[in-house]
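User: Here's a protein and a ligand (xanthosine-5'-monophosphate). What would the complex look like?
Assistant: Let me lay out the input and then the predicted complex.
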Amino acid sequence: MSTAPATEKAPQTIAVVDFGGQYTHLIARRIRNLGLYSAIAAPESFDPSATPNLAGIILSGGPQSVVDRHSPKLSFDPAAVGVPILGLCYGHQLLAATLGGLVVQESRREYGLARVQCETGSPLFSGMDKEQSVWMSHGDHVESLPPGGRTIASSSGLAIAGFEVPALRCFGLQFHPEVSHTRHGDDMLDRFLTLCASVRDWQPADQRTALVERVRSRAGNSQLFLLASGGVDSLVALALCIEAVGARRVVSLHIDTGFMRRHESADVMAHLRGLGFANLNIVDASQAYFDDLRSVVEPEAKRRIIGRLFVDTLNQQLSRLSLGDDWLLVQGTIYPDTIESGGTDKAAVIKTHHNRVAEIEEMLKAGRVLEPLDLFYKDEVRALGLALGLPEKLVNRHPFPGPGLAIRILCSDGATPEVSVADTKLLEEICGSHGMCGRILPVRSVGVQGDARTYEHPAVLWFPPGTAPDWDRVQACAITAANQISSVNRAVFAIRPQDTVNYTVHVQYLDRAAVEALQEIDSLVRNALEPVPEVWQVPVVSLPLHNDAGNTVYVIRPVTSRDAMTADFYRMPLPDLQALSDTCRSAGAGELLLDVTSKPPGTIEWE
Ligand code: XMP
């Protein structure tokens, strides 16, 4: 289990046992938002009696089948543990099976929105409407209940979508209350927490003193060396280090990879100097990045090269910075940063996070890395940043990925990926039933479905001439397309439909020209959308597609989100979208498409 925060008395803790589901961190995140500390535990080593102040247990989802003899099991007896237990998805089935119910295996998996009828007499749903809209994900299902159990939720396709064993305070849900698509999911989790603890005692800003102390004691007499990306996490880590050991012992380095946004590296330095931070260094390493990424197309290969170069650059700089032998590398890694690199050995690799590449893993094993924020989530880091006195404007900046624009330039060797004729027909039928038109684009991007990585096509959707555009229809069509067409994992909306049929694949690699062109469009989009409070983040993506005039097609991805682990597309007012599209086209863009995919099944970034 992850270390508890360094407070005198351990906070009441909800253990989230991780069976490899992609939403494990999201569950833990929601619990903290609801005011209780949560920590993720591995199924094989979780020991309830060794967890200080354990208040409840949540069993996560996971990609395996409970029926499979080798699938992960519970390391404890749920009937004897003495705290409430909530099983979700795989955890729901595992709990039912362990307590004596029957789970039946299915070959097909289903994902998506579902209506369930809930038993409002259950403490999990008390005071809520009987019918609930939920995010369902299931292959296997619970066929019969454990002794003493009763059904508390069912849907048209699933007789037991939820159960409870009241005498044991055990609950199971086949759907995901932690995903924002489950409208009242937070309320369900809140009801569960009420059974676990009579008071809520987790406040991230309260951790400031304990954290400073932790950094000070880990640092000992070492110098602290921090890589400053300019993002919120490294900024807060820097402020923490300085408060812990004083500015003279903290050295920071900003590596300009060539994939920053326009003027960003200079702005980062100016901001930090403005805050009075000393010992700031900057290195322009862009040429090495452009050289090594010259003809790389595959997204994970790009990430690995970027991670390796980062460490190479770092090693080259170390002698120049004369740090001597006694120093620790400080990273602004936050709690979920590892999840999509495979949070545990059971989770599928969606993408390799830049501060979890092999070289950094080696340093971690050798005890040479300090990650003071590794138990915190993004908005907790923001709360800490404010508690440390950092200006709100910097603390609330939009997140920007470590590998920068490199993952927002989709590369291609010019070959056109094959698009299935049957899937194209299916898309046309789905679009027709929503009063829309659509086609599958000949590019691929990373997404996530259930607990697995996808690398599939976007569908482009548009309204036929004379139809009034309407976001509800766009959303319904986008969800159906991604759920029903196996080769589609995202949808984009075209405001000017006449061009969408003519896009052609062109050669695109990570070179200065592609970066500069994207920087230009990115700065126009940020000017328009950063001031909009609902917009959590707005990636701009360069596709290896040209319109018939030979100009590059871009996607904008403004999302609303609480924590980037789930997200919805921002319903941009159409006149604003039209105006922004016109501005970008005057600046050389061939087209501007609006990503209308929720996460899941899309991710926020394209790559
Ligand atoms: P996805 O694309 O997984 O992104 O939905 C979730 C959030 O994480 C950011 N992101 C990264 N941040 N290094 C980072 O520091 C990375 O390698 C990385 N990849 C994605 C992304 O911008 C979004 O806020």
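Summary: The pocket of xanthosine-5'-monophosphate is lined by residues 340, 353-354, 399, 401-403, 537, 564, 599, 603-605 (CB under 6 Å).
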